[in-house]
Amino acid sequence: MEKKGKLFVISGPSGAGKSTVVFKAVENRSDVCFSISVTTRKPRPGEVDGKEYFFVDLDRFKEMVEHDELLEHAEYVANSYGTPRAYVQEQLDAGKNVLLDIEVQGARQVHEKMPEAVMIFIVPPSMEVLKQRLENRGTDTARAIEARLIRAKQEYAEADFYDYIIVNDDAGKAAKEFEAIITAESCRAAEHMDILKNA
Q: What's the pTM value of the predicted model, to 2 decimals?
C-alpha cells in the first residue's frame, strides 16, 4: 500500500531564519514538496499559474472559502491568500511530505482542520538576537523593526499548539533538527502497524 505523506506546518517570527533552515533541510530530499497557495493578486512577470501560486479572482476565492476548500486563508496587503485543501491532499496521497510555511493564525486554522499535521515553530535564541538579525538585514526602519519584535512576542504567546520548537542559533544545526523531525514522524508506530498485523 502506498504510504501517505505528512503535512508539516512551519511558522516563526520574521528574522528567525525559517526559509534558510527549511531549504537546507530539504534540498536533497525527493519526498518533500512545498504547498502552493491560492491568491487573488495578479501574477508578476515570469510567475506561472500552478507553480508559484494558483491565481484566482476574488469571486472564486470567496467560493473556495464558502465551500471549505481552503485549509487556511488570510488577507495581506489588500490581496487574499489561502492553502488549497485539494492540492495538499493530492500530494499527501501521492506519498509526498508537504511543507506549509505560514503565520501562527493560519497555522491554528490548519491545526483545527487537520489535527494530524505536524506543527513546527522556528525561533531565534533570544529577542536580542532577533533584533540584531532584523537590523543586519538593513531592509527595515527602526519603527518597522520595533513592530516586528512586538509581533514576534504576540506570536510566541499564541504558539501553544505546536509540536516542536527549533531554536535557530546555527542554520546548519537547525536544518538537521528539522530533517530529524521529518524522519522521526515517518517512523511513528501508527505508520507501520500494518507490518505488525500482517506478520
A: 0.89
